[in-house]
Design brief:
It is built from 11 helices and 10 strands. The chain has helices at residues 18-26, 46-50, 69-79, 98-108, 125-143, 162-168, 181-191, 213-234, 249-260, 263-276, 282-302, and strands spanning 5-11, 33-40, 58-63, 84-88, 92-93, 111-114, 117-119, 157-161, 195-198, 204-206. The two termini are 39 Å apart.
Length: 311
């Protein structure tokens, strides 16, 4: 008998991360699900882990070489058999009622369901100064978002009915860097007129968040480059381009810093900030991290061709 919920998991180098996700799936109060894991180039013998014994059905789709997250998602959705299709990253830990809540919501609604990801940080100066505070701020803003803006938060923990996915179509494989393939898909779902709701009961723990200024700023740079793809495809009505001549002292400082950045400099400056955070006052350290993160995003947006593959 086909399970009503299929959980699609894209992974690359996920052999050490998947056991935590699978353990949380084994604890589900409702076991009416199966899992499709797409290995986007096996670099750590993930396929062998998936071939082991698990208390639920697991289908493995293995790419011979890396094709990118969008391609992995598309292959996973194509292989899934459930009437509800959930996208789930390999570094999440799901609440015990995740499956039950997914099925209940989709039984009563026809649209998209979002569960936010709560970053779990190891104790560090970065987490104390910047990471934890920004995570709390970001999730609070998402929960407060009006209905017409929830699509912006389409991401690592989302689900739709099979027929809705078929109508909207696959993820755009032109997003090969870090991010925005999700925002793109959420915008298309919103444009099609479907309700998109963020529900706190399916919020998941996210165990592989950015844990240093270097990682966070590099991801911001890649995200800035991907932002240009979204605007080229959909226009700037919902995601405006960054101002050519920003106003305000902070924005001008960010723009001036962005002009001096390159990927190697993001790594060098980020490493210097990380070394300094233990001795900097928290407000100063937070501003230093924010400056590099915002400038890196702007740099990636202004010079997308200079940005390499995502980390």
């Amino acid at each position: 008998m086909t399970a009503p919920l299929s959980i699609i998991v894209p992974t690359r180098g996920g052999a050490a991360r998947l056991p935590r996700l699978f353990a949380s799936l084994a604890r589900q109060t409702d076991q009416r699900f199966d899992v499709v894991v797409v290995v986007d180039g096996d670099i750590d013998d993930t396929e062998a882990y998936l071939a082991g014994d698990h208390p639920f059905a697991v289908t493995a789709v293995v790419f011979e070489a890396n094709q990118g997250r969008s391609s992995a998602l598309n292959a996973g959705f194509a292989a899934a058999t459930g009437s509800i299709l959930a996208r789930c990253d390999d570094d999440l830990e799901l609440p015990e009622t995740y499956v039950a809540d997914q099925i209940a919501w989709h039984t009563a609604n026809r649209g998209g369901l979002i569960g936010l990801c709560r970053n779990v940080y190891p104790p560090s100066p970065y987490a104390r100064v910047y990471g934890t505070a920004m995570d709390l701020q970001g999730r609070a803003a998402a929960y407060a978002a009006p209905a017409e803006e929830t699509w912006r938060h389409w991401g690592a923990n989302v689900s739709v009915p099979r027929e809705v996915y078929a109508e909207i179509g696959p993820y755009d494989t032109d997003y090969r860097g870090y991010g925005w393939e999700d925002v793109d898909w959420g915008w298309r779902l919103h444009q099609a007129g479907y309700r998109i709701e963020i529900r706190p009961e399916i919020e998941a723990k996210h165990h592989v968040a950015a844990t240093t200024t270097v990682i966070r700023a590099k991801r911001a740079m890649y995200s800035g480059a991907a932002r240009t793809r979204f605007i080229a495809k959909h226009g700037d009505a919902m995601i405006p381009p960054l101002a050519e001549h920003p106003h305000g002292a902070w924005n001008r400082l960010v723009a001036a810093t962005a002009q001096r950045l390159s990927e190697p400099r993001v790594e060098t400056w980020g490493a210097w900030i990380d070394r300094s955070l233990p001795v900097l006052p928290t407000p100063v350290g937070r501003k230093a991290v924010a400056l590099l993160v915002e400038a890196a995003h702007r740099c990636g947006y202004r010079r997308p061709q200079s940005v390499g593959r995502a980390i």
